[in-house]
Specification:
The complex is a heterodimer of chains A (311) and B (303). The C terminus of chain A is likely disordered. Chain A is mainly α. Chain A is flat and about 85 Å long. The longest helix of chain A is centred in the last third of the chain and has 38 residues. Helices cover 77% and strands 0% of the residues of chain A. In chain A, helix 1 runs antiparallel to helix 12 and helix 8 packs antiparallel against helix 10. By secondary structure, chain B is mostly helical. The radius of gyration of chain B is 23 Å and the shape is elongated. In chain B, strand 1 and strand 2 form a beta hairpin. A two-stranded antiparallel ribbon of chain B has the order 1-2. Helices cover 69% and strands 1% of the residues of chain B. In chain B, helix 3 crosses helix 6 and helix 10 packs antiparallel against helix 11. The chains are: A mainly alpha (311), B mainly alpha (303).
């Protein structure tokens, strides 16, 4: 039973990766001629023809597609146009900076979002609840690119507490992580609040109260674990939000990660780098979704017996 | 949208429900009314920007560069929000940027809604392998951040194609329209009236536009209210990053990105468009939340 579900989820993840590779192939081949997209307009036609020959662009599409797969399997994601280095190598150098930023952002979302949501639910209807929900709506509506600039204006320009750029010291992380994590923390706080409220109204909570269980124990030991289960799905969505958010955050704070590399590469039409980043993103998304699905199976026994595709 | 309430187990006739919504709007909290007011103003500006802007937003004046808000230049011209690094009036630029941002959002959102619902309808109408392929694509889209897809398209086509950019930005969220339309169309078909019409000789498109669409339009409109602010944010973010709207066109995102270079000595160039975007998306969330709460009593308990 469980084995069947796991296999189905893994197959779905593989299907997604297959679609991403196919998408990348068709976007790169069919929306225009990659050679003329990458070369300046006044390039010698003979050179362009030579490049098409080298890249196999004159061959039938199906053959190119198989060849494309073959190269990817071997880890060949193409070379950067500007210095001829492998795109995978260029992207790889940027991974640590982005991981540092996104993992800290994820920690921020969990450590800020969950407590705020619980606090609001436990004090439902109180000024505290209203304040937290107001902060949440504000945090959610504040576009991250403007939040980053506001932080720089306040803490770097006015107060001169923090440097606007840099990535070596721990305090360099503060403003980028806040920029990256605020919207996510706001979403999680709202979600945890409503899922806590739902659980706190459940019959088994009333039963626990009736048995004289202390309120504190009800909230932390009974309600929270049950309310946290659906939040895992939302945390899974956060991976996508963190990836999109890091593109903006890294640009605002000149953070030397993948997001800024992506924007630079889009502007310079470094297609090999762009496709490498797209596939890396897809891979992290697929792994995140698969992890969420499998975590569910471990945590929530009901899922193991659920029929259907498990949406 | 009042139609949605008729799905609820309620004995109130539909007309009274509609009057109830209007009454609730009149009694809405102050914050919601302020948000409505702000949005009304933004739409007014979007429609009338070229007539109400005090200066040509592109006319430069190097003698009055980086003037702070509320200052007067050498020729006695008043600048409500100051001037930028080449002496352009920021207020006029703001108005014209609001116009472009809102136009992109309106046309983009409508395009996405039409294309997405059509795809969903096609899936529900033809079923079989067409449905399978569409649902696989919907799942794929839901598992990829849209901005990554948009950026890879821009990487190939290059920046500067305004129409393509509007369509691209609007395409965000197509999978949600597709999913909603597909599900609702299938349940409408199950009600039997579509099959009855078909037997009477009505064609596919007649059945869809005249009979099914009116029944599902409320759900699509709710989805539009969710998608619209997301379209505004995607467009401004991409323009801010330099891969969206290109000069000489100016969106709120472009204005903000110019301001980034002058944070040290001219904060207003970034702050004015930034707050304009922030207040607009905030107003949309407040109004959207309130609308969904008001129209759907089921969620009232949880907020």
């Amino acid at each position: 039973m469980i084995g069947g579900i796991v296999i189905r989820r893994v197959l779905r993840a593989m299907l997604t990766m297959f679609l991403v590779v196919t998408f990348a192939f068709f976007v790169l081949r069919l929306t225009g001629d990659p050679v003329s997209a990458m070369m300046p307009d006044d390039t010698d036609p003979a050179i362009m023809e030579q490049m098409r020959e080298d890249w196999g662009l004159n061959r039938p599409l199906a053959e190119q597609y198989v060849d494309y797969w073959w190269r990817l399997v071997q880890g060949d994601f193409g070379n950067a146009f500007r210095d001829g280095r492998p795109a995978l190598e260029i992207v790889g150098e940027r991974i640590p900076a982005t991981l540092k930023l996104t993992l800290s952002g994820f920690a921020f979302i969990v450590l800020v979002g969950f407590p705020l949501g619980i606090l609001a639910a436990v004090n439902r209807g109180s000024p505290m609840d209203r304040a937290i929900m107001t902060i949440s709506v504000t945090g959610f509506s504040l576009p991250n690119f403007f939040l980053g600039i506001l932080l720089i204006l306040i803490f770097s320009v006015q107060l001169r507490w923090l440097p606007a750029f840099g990535s070596e010291r721990w305090y360099h992380l503060l403003m980028p992580v806040f920029t990256l994590g605020t919207a996510g923390a706001a979403v999680i706080a709202r979600f945890v609040r409503s899922s806590m409220l739902e659980v706190l109204n459940a019959p088994y909570i009333r039963a626990a109260r009736a048995r004289g269980m202390p309120e504190r124990a009800i909230v932390w030991r009974v309600a929270l674990p049950n309310a946290a289960i659906p939040s895992i799905t939302v945390l899974g969505f956060m991976v996508g939000a963190l990836i999109s958010g890091s593109i903006v955050t890294e640009t605002v704070f000149a953070w030397p990660g993948i997001g800024r590399l992506l924007i630079d590469s889009v502007a310079q039409r470094e297609l090999a780098i762009v496709q490498t980043i797209v596939m890396l993103t897809a891979l992290s998304m697929v792994v995140a979704n698969l992890t969420v699905d499998l975590l569910y199976l471990v945590i929530d026994p009901r899922q193991r017996y659920a029929t259907g595709t498990g949406e | 949208m009042a139609d949605q309430t008729t799905d609820m187990p309620s004995e109130t006739p539909e007309l009274e429900e509609k009057i109830g919504v209007i009454r609730k709007m009149a009694r809405s909290p102050l914050l919601v009314r302020i948000a409505f007011g702000w949005l009304a103003m933004i739409f007014f500006v979007a429609l009338t920007a070229q007539w109400i802007m005090p200066y040509d937003p592109e006319s430069t004046n190097l003698l009055s560069r980086l003037r702070p808000p509320g200052s007067t230049d050498r020729n006695g011209g008043f600048h409500l929000f100051g001037t930028d690094h080449i002496g352009r009036d920021l207020f006029s630029r703001l108005l014209s940027a609001i116009q472009l941002t809102m136009s992109v959002a309106v046309f983009g959102t409508l395009f996405g809604a039409i294309v997405g619902s059509t795809i969903g309808f096609v899936a529900a109408r033809y079923r079989g392998w067409i449905d399978d392929v569409i649902m696989v694509l919907v799942d794929f889209q839901a598992s990829m951040p849209f901005v990554i897809i948009a950026l890879s398209v821009i990487a190939v086509t290059g920046t500067g194609n305004l129409l393509l950019f509007i369509l691209l930005v609007g395409f965000q969220g197509w999978e949600r329209y597709a999913r909603i339309t597909r599900g609702l169309t299938m349940s409408a078909v199950n009600h039997g009236y579509a099959a009855a019409l078909r037997m009477l000789g009505a064609g596919t498109f007649r059945v869809y536009f005249r009979h099914i669409l009116p029944n599902i339009v409320a759900a699509i409109i709710v989805q539009i209210t969710i998608n619209f602010p997301e379209t505004v944010l995607l467009e401004t973010a991409m323009s801010f990053l330099g891969v969206g709207i290109q000069p000489p066109n100016t969106s709120l995102g472009n204005l903000l990105s110019y301001g980034r270079d002058y944070l040290l000595n001219a904060w207003w160039i970034a702050a004015v468009p930034g707050f304009a975007i922030f207040f607009t998306t905030l107003a949309m969330s407040i109004v959207g939340d309130w609308l969904r709460d008001t129209l759907d009593p089921m969620t009232k308990d949880r907020r």
